[in-house]
Amino acid sequence: MTYRHILVPTDGSEISERAVEQAVSLAAALGARLRVLHVQVSFPISLVGVGELVEPSTVDALMAATQQRAETILGEAMARAAAAGVEAEQSLLVNPQPHQAILEEARTHGCDLIVMASHGRRGLEGLLIGSETQRVLTQSSCPVLVVR
Q1: Hey, where are the domains in the chain?
Q2: Whole-angstrom Cα distance, residue 99 to residue 105?
Q3: Helix, strand, or coil here: 8?
Q4: At residue 7, does pLDDT exceed 90?
Q5: What was the pLDDT predicted at 63?
Q6: Averaged over 72-83, what is the pLDDT?
Q7: In the prediction, which pLDDT does 128 show?
Q8: What is the end-to-end Cα distance of the chain in Å, rounded?
Q9: Is the pLDDT of residue 121 over 50?
Q10: How far apart are CA 42 and CA 12, in angstroms?
Q11: Selecting from 3.10.50.30, 1.10.10.60, 3.40.50.620, 3.10.310.10, what CATH number does the domain 5-147 have?
């Protein structure tokens, strides 16, 4: 099977950047298009129980910083694709469940391969939250390449 449209979700982490590198290299080798995705949760930190203690301007500053970080992450990935001569598009989505956004993005845009980092969470957090990568692996209708 030849892949024609590759989706690469990125959160800007080191391992996620390796996934972007792999996706760009693969797209260049195959002549495929690339779709770079960054998913933001609804809010960058939990304010449960402390919402009344936080100044509204602080919330605005946090949201602006989160937006700027997302734009930087996407911009760097797009620059990497352009340098390799790969046709690429970007998406920024807000969803409290990143795996759902990733799966929907792949379906909506007809991506035939997802390249993503292995973000294995450990300990109690891993038991309670689970791995977004694991969820994509088990629910995706297209192949998923996991980069370590």
Answers
A1: 5-147
A2: 10
A3: strand
A4: yes
A5: 82
A6: 98
A7: 46
A8: 23
A9: no
A10: 17
A11: 3.40.50.620
121-139 mean pLDDT: 70
Describe the crossing of helices 132-139 and 98-108 by its angle, rounded to 10 degrees: 40
Nearest to 146 by CA among 114, 124, 121, 123: 114
Closest of 3, 34, 1 to residue 112, by C-alpha? 3
Q: What is the DSSP string of 95-143?
A: -SSHHHHHHHHHHHTT-SEEEEE-----HHHHHHH--HHHHHHHH-SS-
Reported as a pLDDT band with limits 50, 70 and 90, residue 41 is confident
Which two three-digit tokens encode residue 55? 């100044």
What lies within 8 Å, CB to CB, of 44 at 6+ separation is 62, 63, 65, 66
Nearest CA among 33, 7, 32 for reference residue 20: 7
